[in-house]
Amino acid sequence: MASTLLRATVFFFLNILLVADFAYSQSFIGINYGQVADNLPPPSATAKLLQSTSIEKVRLYGADPAIIKALANTGIGIVIGAANGDIPALASDPNFAQNWVNANVAPFYPASKIILITVGNEVITSNDQNLMNQLLPAIQNLQNALNSISLGSNIKVSTVHSMAVLRQSEPPSSAVFHPNYMSVLKGLLEFNSATGSPFTINPYPYFAYQSDPRPETLAFCLFQPNAGRLDTNTNIKYMNMFDAQVDAIRSALNSMGFKNVEIVVAETGWPYKGDGGEVGPGLENAKAFNGNLIAHLRSMVGTPLMPGKSVDTYLFALYDEDLKPGPGSERAFGLFKPDLTMTYDVGLSKSGQSTPASPKTPATTPSSPANPSTKAPAGPKPKAGGGSWCVPMGGVSDAQLQANLDYACGRGLDCSAIQPGGACFEPNTIASHAAYAMNLFFQAAGRDPWTCDFSHTATLSSNNPSYNGCNYPGGST
């Protein structure tokens, strides 16, 4: 009994350390903190909220001194912004740029960890030729101002682009920038390359689904099981829209000779509600997209063209912005409410890291396909053996199985066997993939019985569930 208790205690603390590692080392997860609202909590409360999460970077659209001060000594990276309206003065007057840095950076750094200044938002695709021409001089003047106070190597300067800078994005390998923007982009990219600043982009699978509202497109956008999309130039099968969009930008950058320029996702998100006529908004879709995106980033699998490293990604958004114009969805992107509670849980809370990520639930639209079967994987009868395997209980919902799958594969385990082309991809059902992933987690965690729980939806079995060429890890107990 004592040895069992000791073993349990040791494993408990090892599991806590594992959870803490995921909670404290996710520098690739950021969030947008917009302020077009009249009901936001004070910056000090927001700073405490952020410290209770695994969010390590915050993007501001301006340079609110109260927020920058509130984030001092938190270790949270801060992106501040110069507005589109500031670009003409920044471009034409180096003194204006110096005064901007002296007012918005110098008083706060390094206690407030400012890491990036974005000059303007989606300027190039605004088609304001005057602003487009002034963008690079504005950026250069800000860089020179930072250099003058010896912060040029610590704080980067860039601008934020929409996906519309691309002339085409499908398939990802064929993506190129629009010829109308090439001359401006070339100068900006030369600056990015010379200073090590990122090419920041706003990919929104949500908008991609709105332009192509088929059930299979929704699954592709929400990281749900789908047939994938083959890039015939590279023979890469893309399994989600986010990777396809980011790799399209990578291909366009590479085609211009800027393979060294890093990509940062400045915005991406999904609204949890909208007006009656809007396609795509909804609580389940928002939970699926954000929860599965976070699990995807945590897996560190990267994208097909940038494997093994997660792209820095700023979720949109921290709070709803109730004063924003436009359709209802524009005011419904917030992951947190003004009272600091979660709008819905996607596993960002440090105290909730041991909870499976939000399920990839099917869309609640009339055109959605039926849930995949939750029956046991097709194949020969499981082999008998003396080992121990963790398998789902009967009658577990697809939503819970998908949550278990996300949780297991989001811990950095090698789930390639259930990816397209893997030995366990077929049958392509949530039940089959979840069974493999849950057992993989159980084996990796030391095969202790309490790691085969998954919110009381799993059980231990002495029957080897391996089938055909799909081998489930297992061993003697």
Automatic annotation (TrEMBL):
One GO-annotated biological process of the protein: carbohydrate metabolic process
Subcellular localization: Secreted
SUPFAM superfamilies noted in UniProt: (Trans)glycosidases
Catalytic activity line of the entry: Hydrolysis of (1->3)-beta-D-glucosidic linkages in (1->3)-beta-D-glucans
Gene Ontology terms for molecular function: glucan endo-1,3-beta-D-glucosidase activity
Name by which UniProt lists this protein: glucan endo-1,3-beta-D-glucosidase
Organism: Momordica charantia (Bitter gourd)
UniProt keyword annotation of Heme present: no
Gene name of the encoded protein: LOC111012336
Domain X8: 388-472
Gene Ontology cellular-component annotations: extracellular region
